[in-house]
Each structure stands twice: as C-alpha cells, then as structure tokens.
Amino acid sequence: MIATIHPSSIHGLVTAAASKSAMQRACALALLHRGETIIQNPGRSNDDLAALDIIRKLGAETEIKDEALRIKNDGECRFAGTIHCGESGLGIRMFTPIAALSGSEVIIEGSGSLRNRPMHFFDEILPQLGVQVESNKGYLPIKIKGPLRPADCTIDGSLSSQFLTGLLMAFGKAAKEPVVITVTNLKSKPYIDLTLKMMNDFGYAVVNERYERFLIGPSLDFARDLSRGPSTSLRTIIVEGDWSGAAFLLVAGAIAGSATVQGLDTDSAQADKAILSALKDCGARVSVTNDGITVASPAANALTAFRFDATDCPDLFPPLVALAAYCKGVSVIKGVERLRHKESDRSASLQQEFEKMGVTITVDDDEMRVTGGNGLTGARVHSHHDHRIAMAAAVAALKANGETVIEEADAINKSYPDFYRHLKMLGASVSLP
Hints:
- The protein is α/β, with parallel strands linked by helices.
- The protein has helices at residues 20-32, 46-57, 89-99, 120-125, 162-174, 189-201, 222-227, 243-256, 275-281, 317-324, 346-356, 387-396, 419-425, and strands spanning 3-6, 13-15, 34-40, 61-65, 68-74, 81-84, 105-109, 132-136, 139-145, 153-156, 179-184, 206-209, 213-216, 234-238, 258-262, 285-289, 292-296, 303-304, 307-309, 327-334, 360-364, 367-372, 380-382, 404-407, 429-431.
- Strands 18, 19, 20, 21 and 22 form a 5-stranded mixed sheet that branches.
- It is globular, with a radius of gyration of 22 Å.
C-alpha cells in the first residue's frame, strides 16, 4: 500500500490505541489461568491477533462480548502441531516457553523478518529445563517437546527481555517449589516491570532482586489447580493505552502544531512513556491533565537538540529521529545496539530513509547523531516492512517541503492499524488508496 503525506498543521484529540505489549501478555496469562478472564479494551493489531490465534490453538476459548474479550481455559496447554507467531518478536519469545509446558511436540513458526531473528536462546536454555529442541541453526522454525520443568538457570538478558518474560510466566505456572532465574546484562527493564505487574494481578509470586535474580514460587492458585476441581475464578484486565504508538502522535504535535492523546497512564510500566522526557528537553510544550497529554510546538517554533538514552526503550528510536530532524543542532540518541534485530535493521533503515528527506544521520558505536533543524524535503521513502519506520516517515513528512510517499505503508498494521486514521483526525492530510 502507498500512503501520501502532504504538509499539514495539526490540532485535535485522539484516544491511544491499546498497548500490544499489555494485550499479548494478557492473552498469555489468560491462557495459563484456570477460569475466565475478561480483557477490556482489547487490541486488534496484527501482533494481537497472532497472540489470540496462539492461545486458541493451545486450548483457550475466546469470545467477543459487549466489546470485551472473554477467554476461558482450564489452565493447561494441550496442543500438537504448529503455532504461528506472525511477525511478533514478543509473541515468539514469550509463547515458546509457555507452549513447552505441553508434553506434545509443537512447531513454532513465524513470518517476515521474524524468520531472520536469532533464537539461539531456546537451543541453549530449554534443554536445561527438560525440553527437547530442534531449530534451524538458531532460527525458525523451532520444534519443541516438553514438558518444561522449572529449574534454577542463568540467562543472558542483553538481546531482549522478552525471553525472560516467557520464562517467568512458564515458571510461575509450573513451579512446584521455589526456583531462581539469574539474569546477566538485562535490557528493557521496564518491560519486565510490566510483566511482573500483570503476573501479580493473576496471583503469581515473583521476587525481583535488582533485576539480577528472580525468585519464582508456586502460584496462589497452585493447590486448587492440583485438585482439578471446578473453578469460578474470574480475572478482569483493562488493556492500557499504548505509549509506543502514541509517541508518534505526541512528536507530531511538537513538530506540526499540537496533539492531545487520551488514555495514557503516566504511571505505566511501559518504557516508552519516556518520550515525554525527550519532548520536554527539546523545548516542546507538554501538558499533562485529566483530559489527556497535550504536546505542542514551541511558541517561537524553535526545537533544540537533545540527548536521550534509549537503551531500555529502543522502540522510541524512530519517533525520536523524526523529532530530532526538526531540532536545531545535533541530537544524540544512545542504544543503537538494540536496533539490529527488529522488523528491520532500524539503524540502517532510519539512515537510509531520512537521508532521502535531507537529514544527516551518523552512527558511532552505540550512539546515533541526528543533525536537524535545516528543513526536510518530501521524498519517496520505503517502510522496509517495518511499522515504526512507516510511522516515523509519516510524522516527519508533516512539515517537509512537498509531499512524501511511503511505500509498503500498511506495515503499520503490525502494531497500530488506526495510525493513519488518527493522523487524519488530528488534521493531517493523508491520502490512501
């Protein structure tokens, strides 16, 4: 799909999309829960739909009723066959240990860039937990046969925290006595905070010792689960607004007028709420009220360069680059090493596409430098089949000289299918097929 973004001034209000990070975790926990779970404000991105398909195959019953998602299961995973994670990195890293709780053979598949992402973690760790693993030299497809048996283990957290999320959930479900996961060099700690918060809502007992050791005990429902008796346990989850997607709208407000986003929790465990810090540092006007979060261009229309450490929130790189392109001077964003294994090599993709619009981006070791404030030129750019590259280009195009054409613009469906509609609600001129 082609999307054409015309130079625009924006002003208005939208409600944030549902967080796919929270939605996918809610689906996994509902699968493991013995009883019924009601998910309010369920997400509908491609990643969310993939998570729903996975839990159905693993035994859960799902139903949409009164705009809420109702999930029922007996807390067990029973499935022999193939589960498909789409292009969701969280999905494959979280659901693989959960699927390994089954004693049947399960094949884990994915599509697009996910087939090029390294999965050596499973080859190294799962055999220590009694799981037979066969992979394509550390890549998809992966064949596993459990059941997974929780045991003390040590994992490397430098590539992604998502592996740890899956293990925490699987251990929480299956632990019959306390076990310890030791983690070295953990990245994206806020996402583990989100995992632990949601696990706590489901009665799991996890002690976090400085993000270096995690002590997991039997869940509060463990004794009842052993009885196999009938369960009337009901859990209700409200999926919070997505800071990752909203970051693009807030940056758009800083660049091209003003934008108000409702439905965001400033106390959220989501790492990407840190976008507010960068927006304040560069001189954008930021207001947080009960009516929402409003970001507006500075009165003098002069955004200034900023420094930002995105090591724990690498998904902010694309909106931060769009913001930096309009900030006078050289902005420095740290955490480039976290960009290598996303939907694209985001470091290279950002350099390539923003160069077409006249922005100079250089990379020095773990830091990206963006020279901004010199004006952008509309251009024909490509999403690299990466949802966040498409959104970054669209936001940057709002104040470019001339229209910008985005190829493979439907990549946004992975996380934020309403993105272009929300831009138009804010007053942006967006042409779609």
